[in-house]
């Protein structure tokens, strides 16, 4: 219920413009709202899966990934931008971020991709048929 209320309160200022065949939608991303959503969702993850998830017993280390440029610059066939991501690498990189010296990062373009990989893994694990597929 709290999630629905938060989604209903999610406010974006949108403006739609066109140039040529492209449609541009400008929305305001409010970092504080994003932080609230992340907290809400991570609390739900902890409630669903517990404080720690042992990923070594699941066959979910490798996944398909679309590189950032191919994902957002829709000019060419995205197949050339598809590669394989690795959940264990994502976790290692995020743990390394926590140990980096204060002046060394974070590197948003790099670290957010690893965070996205872990968040997608959590979403996959919560799919209605994910547990059946792992058996």
Provide structural commentary:
Helix content is 50%, strand content 15%. α4 (87-99) packs across α5. The protein is of the alpha+beta class. The protein has helices spanning 2-9, 31-49, 68-72, 87-99, 108-125, 130-134; strands spanning 15-19, 22-26, 62-66, 82-86.
Characteristics of this structure?
alpha+beta; disordered N terminus; single chain; 135 residues; 50% helix; two-stranded antiparallel ribbon
Q: Tell me the total number of β-strands.
A: 4
Order of helices and strands: HEEHEHEHHH
Report the mean per-residue pLDDT as an integer: 83
Q: Numbering strands along the chain, what is their spatial order in the largest sheet?
A: 1-2
| Helix-and-strand structural type | alpha+beta
Low-confidence stretches: 1-16
Helix content: 40-55%
Outline: globular
Strand content: 5-15%
Which SSEs are present, and which pair or pack?
Layout: H1 2-9, E1 15-19, E2 22-26, H2 31-49, E3 62-66, H3 68-72, E4 82-86, H4 87-99, H5 108-125, H6 130-134
Antiparallel strand pairs: 1-2, 3-4
Helix pairs in contact: 4-5
Structure described in brief:
By secondary structure, the protein is α+β, with helices and mostly antiparallel strands. It is 50% helix and 15% strand.
């Amino acid at each position: 219920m709290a999630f629905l209320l938060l989604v209903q309160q999610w406010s974006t200022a949108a403006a739609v413009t066109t140039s040529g065949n492209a449609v541009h939608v400008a929305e305001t991303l409010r970092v504080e709202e994003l932080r609230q959503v992340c907290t809400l969702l991570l609390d739900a993850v902890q409630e669903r899966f517990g404080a720690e998830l042992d990923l070594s017993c699941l066959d979910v280390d490798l996944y398909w990934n679309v590189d950032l440029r191919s994902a957002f610059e829709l000019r060419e066939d995205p197949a050339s931008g598809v590669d394989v991501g690795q959940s264990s690498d994502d976790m290692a990189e995020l743990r390394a971020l926590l140990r980096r010296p204060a002046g060394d990062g974070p590197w948003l373009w790099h670290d957010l991709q690893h965070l996205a990989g872990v968040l997608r893994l959590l979403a996959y694990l919560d799919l209605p048929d994910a547990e059946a597929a792992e058996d």
